[in-house]
From TrEMBL:
CC per GO annotation: plasma membrane
Transmembrane segments: 6-28, 35-57, 69-89, 101-123, 129-149
Protein name, per record: Uncharacterized protein
Keyword Cell membrane tagged: yes
InterPro entries per UniProt: Cell_shape_determining_MreD, MreD_proteobac
Keywords, ordered alphabetically: Cell membrane, Cell shape, Membrane, Transmembrane, Transmembrane helix
Subcellular location: Cell membrane
Taxonomy, superkingdom: Bacteria
Chief localization: membrane
One family name in Pfam for this protein: MreD
Length: 158
């Protein structure tokens, strides 16, 4: 992978962090997709030898600091997400984009559930039923992320 592609990948992660903190009205706040997890998914699927489990610790800690949660909660979430992606890596490319979006929705819903359990055990915080909406919105955006990410990273490599 070229230096331009690695720089583009880290720029993509930066944009994902910015989009995750984009202020939304209260009515649609639960409909914000998990941009960082979508970005991590694209990077792990398109460049598995470059982006692997080592990415979980720095990105998880950055997400912990950014959201003000207990240090290590997002590290566990990102680690489980990347591990599942690496297990499903070969199968994901056999699926069509709709099936990929369903798998992405399940992975991000699992990540949201781990986050919810962690907050529940630490704070006793309870959240509304709309907990699964970021996973649903991420699945809707997956075809666009897949197309843009795949074409951009392939163009950078050649």
């Amino acid at each position: 992978m070229s230096a331009r592609a690695i720089f583009f990948s880290f720029f993509m992660i930066f944009i994902a962090f910015v989009l995750e903190h984009l202020p939304l009205p209260v009515v649609v706040d639960w409909f914000q997709p998990a941009w960082v997890m979508l970005c991590i998914t694209a990077l792990v699927l398109f460049a598995p030898n470059v982006f692997g489990l080592w990415l979980a610790i720095p990105l998880g800690l950055m997400m912990d600091v950014e959201q003000g949660t207990l240090l290590g909660l997002h590290v566990v979430m990102v680690t489980v997400h990347i591990l599942m992606l690496q297990i499903l890596y070969r199968r994901m490319f056999l699926f069509n984009v709709l099936q990929q979006a369903i798998v992405i929705m399940l992975l991000i819903a699992m990540q949201q559930l781990i986050h919810y359990w962690g907050l529940l055990m630490i704070n006793g915080d309870s959240r509304p039923v709309l907990l699964w909406m970021p996973a649903f919105m991420s699945a809707i955006l997956w075809p666009w992320v897949y197309t843009v990410g795949y074409k951009s990273l392939r163009r950078m490599q050649h």
